[in-house]
Amino acid sequence: MRIASYNINGIKARLPRLLEWLEETRPDVACLQEIKTQDAGFPADEFEKIGYGAIWHGQKSFNGVAILARDQAPEEIKRGLDGEPEDEHSRYLEANITGKDGKKVRVSSIYLPNGNPHPGPKFDFKLRWMKRLRERAAEIWAEEVPAVLAGDYNVIPRDNDVYSVKAMESDALMQPESRQGYRRMLNDGWTDALGVTYPEGQIWTYWDYRSGGWQRDQGFRIDHLLLSPLAADRLKSCGVDKEHRGREKASDHTPAWVDLDL
């Protein structure tokens, strides 16, 4: 089963690129972030035409997450995180996906807050959101199911996950508190699939539109797939579809994926 994460940066603006990627690579599951549309505007019928069922959690102009599944409708488990009722951001969606053997895999699509400018209220909100995500991850862990927490975490975990430490040292994505929040989940037992597969780093998932980031290959890794033990034991391979970032009117992110032997 191939499970992918893709920050599409506006599903309406990038729909041709998204459909192109889906038809070329045919992932079993695609977790999308930054769909940037209200629920009524989500193009579910376009995905149905190419064999994908969908659930989504939209928001006007900002945020928004979705889960697509090939040849089935994802079974929604949860939307949004508990612990902060006033938080109306559409950043979390969780579902069960049924494998060919009839067993279920838990998948979450995550769009973690950026946190800039740092310091400030947005950074404080980011850290609280990470704490709430960790609490939900612990609940999933307790169910002892194969699980993949996929998404744009807006965290650069290690120095070798960025083209220039100096260029990003003051950014919220690389602050010690952000990294510590991410590391706590790894210490809980979640496996960073790309991190363990590419310990030397230098594998990017994001290139800024500004200053020729793509043309200069000045990127960093902020899109992650965290695996529960039952999923990590079945990890066959993982990677990024880098070539799709260079296409016309592409997202500033590229898809990251894992192949699990289920």
Please provide a written account of the structure:
The chain is an alpha+beta fold. The chain has a single domain (2-260), classed as Endonuclease/exonuclease/phosphatase (Deoxyribonuclease I, Chain A, 4-Layer Sandwich), CATH 3.60.10.10. Helix content is 24%, strand content 27%. The strands form three sheets. Strands 3-4-2-1-14-13 form a six-stranded mixed beta sheet. A hairpin with a 5-residue loop joins strand 6 (92-98) and strand 7 (104-111). Helix 3 packs parallel to helix 5. The longest helix has 22 residues, at 121-142. It is globular.
Give a topology summary.
Blueprint lengths: L1 E6 L7 H11 L3 E5 L10 H6 L2 E6 L7 E6 L4 E5 L12 E7 L5 E8 L9 H22 L4 E6 L12 H4 L7 H12 L3 E2 H5 L8 E2 L11 E2 L2 E5 L1 H4 L2 E6 L15 E5 L2
Parallel strand pairs: 1-2, 7-8
Antiparallel strand pairs: 1-14, 2-4, 3-4, 5-6, 6-7, 8-12, 9-12, 10-11, 13-14
Please give a handful of descriptors for the protein shown.
262 residues, alpha+beta, Deoxyribonuclease I, Chain A, 6-stranded mixed beta sheet, 7 helices, 24% helix, globular
One letter per element, helices H and strands E, the order comes to EHEHEEEEEHEHHEHEEEHEE
CATH topology: Deoxyribonuclease I, Chain A
The geometry reads as: globular
Largest beta-sheet characterization: 6 strands, mixed
N-end to C-end Cα span: 6 Å
Question: Brief description of this entry?
Answer:
The protein has 262 residues and is of the alpha+beta class. Helices cover 24% and strands 27% of the residues. Helix 1 links the parallel strand 1 (2-7) and strand 2 (29-33).
